[in-house]
Amino acid sequence: MVFLETFWQRLIEIVLAPALNPSMFWIIMPLFFTLLLMTFYFGAHKREELGYSSAVANSVVLLFVGVDLFKHVFNLTNPGHLMNFQFHPISTVICFAVILEAFTLMFASFFKSLPKQITFFFCAPVSVNLQAYLAIAIVYTNITLDWYTLLAALLLFVVVYILLKALQFSQRQLAGAIHEKKLAELDEEKKEATRQAKAAELEKKQYLAKDKAEKALDTQHTGKKKKKK
Question: Which pTM was predicted?
Answer without folding.
Answer: 0.77
